[in-house]
Specification:
The chain is an all-alpha fold. It is built from one helix and no strands. Helix content is 90%, strand content 0%. The longest helix has 66 residues. GO terms for molecular function: protein heterodimerization activity.
Length: 73
Amino acid sequence: MEEMEFQRFIAPLKESLEVYRREQKGKKEARKDKNKKADFEEQDKSKEEEEDDDDDDDRMEEEEQNADEEEDN
């Protein structure tokens, strides 16, 4: 730019470039935070599903035991 005698554009272009870089960095960090949050929610959901499965298994065992006891009576 200096060689082409456009010195007056150098300062505004540098400022614009800095603003652009800050925006891109902010977007990148926002995506990273969003991904972390999504991963955490997915892990939390998986834990809940496992707990629900365990509860279902316990209920099924109880029902089977009750059915066996009724058959014995």
